[in-house]
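Researcher: Let's try something more involved. This one mixes different molecule types, so please make sure each is placed in the same coordinate frame as the others.
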Amino acid sequence: AQSVTQPDIHITVSEGASLELRCNYSYGATPYLFWYVQSPGQGLQLLLKYFSGDTLVQGIKGFEAEFKRSQSSFNLRKPSVHWSDAAEYFCAVGARGSNDYKLSFGAGTTVTVRA
Amino acid sequence: ETGVTQTPRHLVMGMTNKKSLKCEQHLGHNAMYWYKQSAKKPLELMFVYNFKEQTENNSVPSRFSPECPNSSHLFLHLHTLQPEDSALYLCASSRLTGDGYTFGSGTRLTVV
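Model: All components are placed in one shared frame. Result:
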């Protein structure tokens, strides 16, 4: 079964600074990979996903993520953070081509943006 | 509009009450899920339905009773809850291909 690790529980970043959130996965083949964002009291919104092709994926709100097979990683980046990016971010992995259609989620990384 | 609609958005109930949470999707998805999200804890998968059939129950107490009358609707019936059941309950749906979920906005449940 697939699994996900988000090593950072909490990150604080200054507004306008760059942000990188780490995600490592465990899966025997190339998985489907996702980043979701959750604002307080809300559901999870899909930021971006990787299925195949270009390993640098562009998402909404100015986010991008890079799939690195050799490192089993799918890190999320944003060049310049806005105060509205304060939220919780979840990395998730899905099994490609198997009967297991459930996603496995990481524990989440909380991002605080300081002025 | 996320494609998955959850009602109500907020619910306060006493420990002796009976209430139900509703989830609806018209995305053509065949799998639906209930998750519990408590403060400072990871997402907890509660139930999974595939074409109306329950395929997973992660040791959820019987005071939570799911119902899936068709592929578009999912309910979570609640009775004699405990204060520790207070949480955000999230519904999600997906295809059966592992290519991602669509989440609802959640129901914030407070048990008093």
